[in-house]
Amino acid sequence: MSWSWASKKGVLIMSHTLHRSGDVGSLKNDYVILSLSAQGLNRDGAGPKLGSIVQTFSKYNPVNCGILGSDTVITMDLPDEFLQGIENNSVVHAVFDNINDLKDCLIDLKENDYGMSIVVSGLFENVHECCKKVGIKPHTVNQSLGVFGNLDRLPKEEKVRDISTMCGHGMVPFLLIKEYVEKIKKGTITAEKAAEKITPLCTCKIFNPKRAAILLDELSKE
Amino acid sequence: MVINEERCVGCGLCVNYCPAHAISIHEKKAVIDLDLCFECGNCKYANVCKKDAFVQQTMTWPRVIRSIFSNVRIISPNTNLSGRGTEEMKTNDVTGRFKPGAIGIACEMGRPGTGTTFKDVETIAKVVVGHGGKLEEKNPTFFVFDDPSKGTIKKEFLNERALSVIIEALVEKENLIPLLENLKEAQNMIDTVFSLDVISVMEDEKIFTNDLIEKAGLKARPNGKTCLGLGRPRKEF
């Protein structure tokens, strides 16, 4: 198995799971969960806990799951050596395409009480309702107020933006999405295969390939 | 990033992998416009080039700032972290960085997918600090400011470009509405886009900033990020 870390020195963090655009109907199928330790507070010894957390993520049918900087998508079949490679400053991620899998995952995480910060991005109403059912009291929120400035710089097709913003670091360019839409229209690739090709560009593993395939298919029919 | 012309066969497969629109094909060879290039490395790391023709050149100062803010694999000199952000609210249950009633704001310049010059970053940063915004020192962006109390950026960076630069600050509750109103006006002074964040600790399971945002004539999106409060040791206020 070959994989490499983006950084051995620090973690890559920003609000990379915020600002996922789209209508409510589409966002109902898109929930990102991540976990990390806090520098200077609970980082020592965090690696094994984060390993257990990402294994927990993987149990509940994520459509994407992994560790920032690793090329490997986490599954339950991964050997222990891989999880031992998780460092105290690693950030682990997963994406669920429905609220029920997220709920089951949160029940598991709450029961095991790993003590690492857990963050969920998604529709507030659904996420907070889910927390209530599980017995979790949400702590802090980061709200998106949308996009400002010279909006002419953005593609007119909102669904192109919806796909691109699923990689918060901007590694899924608008032009590439449009290229794949044209290929789907011509029948040279399926929407599912195109989503599969795009997904690895997001090294954080927060891209939702199932949602992307639906959006690509819809774009190809516009 | 530059092209090894001996290896490049001009197939053009790489062109649309560039978020900066910096790659074009001339005389059967890929050409990178270095003024446009963010140095994000997406062209190289996407492994789209079958001839391995992308070469990361040695970047001189101040160009290296492009990669710090655009290449997810690069470490920032002032935070020793890769990426453009911080732990911000993700670990707030443990750090208490945002206290109850406090408001965090972030203007994510160039996002989504457009990129920004640091001149445009300065334009918006001046608005943020002009409303009492205290810039976050642990953010990589803090490094580019000449005078953080004014929001001015070091001259050598003004014409550089990056895929995304986050202006992150704490603002007083009473300053949020005028700040948001001024940001709406300032958006006409820049040639790029920015995504806007507002961070707060929930009170009685409610998001208290919603009312303030609406009073400023804005509306928060229905989706966002929630720190669940499962981190330990929990910060008590």
Describe this structure in words.
The complex is a heterodimer of chains A (222) and B (237). With 222 residues, chain A is of the alpha+beta class. Chain A has 9 helices and 5 strands. A 4-stranded antiparallel sheet of chain A has the order 2-3-1-4. In chain A, α6 (158-164) packs antiparallel against α9 (209-220), α7 packs across α9 (209-220) and α8 crosses α9 (209-220). The longest helix of chain A is centred in the N-terminal third of the chain and has 14 residues, at 46-59. Chain A is globular and about 50 Å long. The termini of chain A are far apart. Residues 1-13 of chain A have low confidence and may be disordered. Chain B has 237 residues and is α+β, with helices and mostly antiparallel strands. Chain B has 2 domains: 1-58, Alpha-Beta Plaits, CATH 3.30.70; 75-215, no CATH class. Chain B contains 6 helices and 13 strands. Chain B has helices spanning 42-45, 64-70, 92-95, 118-130, 173-186, 209-215, and strands spanning 2-3, 23-26, 29-32, 54-55, 103-109, 116-117, 134-135, 145-147, 152-153, 161-162, 165-171, 193-201, 223-227. In chain B, the strands form 5 sheets. Chain B has a 4-stranded antiparallel sheet. In chain B, α4 (118-130) runs antiparallel to α5 (173-186). Classes of the chains: A alpha+beta (222), B alpha+beta (237). At the A-B interface, α4, β4, α5, β5 and α7 of A face α3, β5, α5, β12 and α6 of B. β5 (140-149) of chain A pairs antiparallel with β12 of chain B.
Strand and helix layout:
The complex is a heterodimer of chains A (222) and B (237).
Chain A: H1 24-27, E1 31-36, H2 46-59, E2 64-67, H3 80-84, E3 92-96, H4 99-112, E4 117-123, H5 124-134, E5 140-149, H6 158-164, H7 174-186, H8 191-198, H9 209-220
Antiparallel strand pairs in A: 1-3, 1-4, 2-3
Helix pairs in contact in A: 4-5, 6-9, 7-9, 8-9
Chain B: E1 2-3, E2 23-26, E3 29-32, H1 42-45, E4 54-55, H2 64-70, H3 92-95, E5 103-109, E6 116-117, H4 118-130, E7 134-135, E8 145-147, E9 152-153, E10 161-162, E11 165-171, H5 173-186, E12 193-201, H6 209-215, E13 223-227
Antiparallel strand pairs in B: 1-4, 2-3, 5-11, 5-12, 6-10, 7-11, 8-9
